[in-house]
């Protein structure tokens, strides 16, 4: 089975929320795809980002580090932007829980709730 | 409360690479022919006035007075012309010689001319090296004593540290700038190291090359250790401790003030990744959440770092020391960045948290006890 790209799709919604959907295994090997996509979004001026992890099967420490870097970058904007995770499966939550980083970045079960949350918390 | 200060030693070894002799003084030409003529005329007139007054019989020797004044004015004008009318000091010199001539007669005229001629080429102001030596004070590494009884705002104000007079650096001569580089390189203070990085941007090649050599020397110790640990990670199977050490080293390197700003995001990500890896392998190591919290704080995620610490303390309520030390760190950082609001929030959070009462009693004199007194007050500590 050929390697599928980490970033499945990127949607810039009319309400100013950008939805970045990822898929497959997210780790050290394919982390650059996420970094590039997140940088592009920030460069384009996105300040409300929802990261859809519904189709992500596993995550490692390097991916979480990149996630925190992107989160810090969004939060350091003026005014502070908002980023949240949606659709993380129980395995992903366990991985984050093991590293004590669960709930540091807001996460929601479904996309609609996540979009509402970033619209509420974002600039 | 205010840290001790030490006077900077600006003596520079001439054998140090990049040392240059102080540049020669600008050439000042000899007085021109007009000046000499005026001076000769003035001396003759002054001499005539002196002789006249010796032979005068009237009560006020008008002729002698006339020659006196003419002589003084001629010598004064000669000095003015010698100094060049465009020089800002010409008028000053003219007035000085005029006063000498009027009050000193022939001797005064001779002395004023000699003073002028001997002062040619002398420095017109105090050399900057002496100014810097006199003015530049930098902080010693002595830890300041805290007065826990003072209000937080007072402590905050008193903790504001005096920065070195870095604005003088671009105007310092090469020898002084090299001495400052030496002094900054000796310091462990990250702020001094950042100044050293700034000096590497000096336009004078001697200064920036010397600053760069010092920075490279300091960076080498970090780079070598990072390389050694990274190599060990490739071959060792039990890596939790090594990952934690490597993450700490990255963090230390970032905080050292030696790292280029452009590289910081890269090393920050690596530090976070290694910390998280170590946490999965060794979940009981309580230093790791503290390190991760510090890393998050470095990127401005203060709320998240405190949340992480609180969740850690909820799981391991006995490890109060780490948290208090971390709060201390946060406090200092808040002071540096003049975030009084943040400092207040940290203190409030510490006071409100339930784990605070778990501090062991009867530990007077211990560092943790002092911190607890600071954060929680005498009653709660």
Annotation, overall tally of beta strands of chain A: 5
- Classify the beta-strand content of chain B into a percent band: under 5%
Q: How many strand units of chain B?
A: 2
Q: Which structural class do you get from the secondary structure elements of chain B?
A: mainly alpha
Q: Which chain pair has the greatest contact?
A: A-B, 19 and 24 residues
Q: What is the rounded Rg of chain B?
A: 35 Å
**Sheet with the most strands: spatial strand order of chain B:** 1-2
Q: CATH first level of chain A: which class?
A: Alpha Beta
Largest sheet composition of chain B: 2 strands, antiparallel
Percent range for β-strand residues of chain A:
25-35%
Low-confidence stretches of chain B: 1-10, 16-24, 133-143, 159-164, 354-366
Give the % helix of chain B. 55-70%
Shape of chain A: globular
Name the quaternary structure.
heterodimer
Shape of chain B: elongated
Care to describe what's here?
- The complex is a heterodimer of chains A (123) and B (381).
- By secondary structure, chain A is α/β, with parallel strands linked by helices.
- Chain A has 4 helices and 5 strands.
- Chain A has helices spanning 31-43, 61-75, 90-98, 111-121; strands at 7-12, 18-26, 48-59, 82-86, 107-108.
- Chain A has a 5-stranded mixed sheet.
- In chain A, strand 4 (82-86), helix 3 and strand 5 form a beta-alpha-beta unit.
- Chain A is globular, with a radius of gyration of 13 Å.
- The model of chain A has no long low-confidence stretch (mean pLDDT 86).
- Chain B has a two-stranded antiparallel sheet.
- Chain B has 381 residues and is mainly alpha-helical.
- The interface between A and B is medium-sized, with 19 and 24 residues.
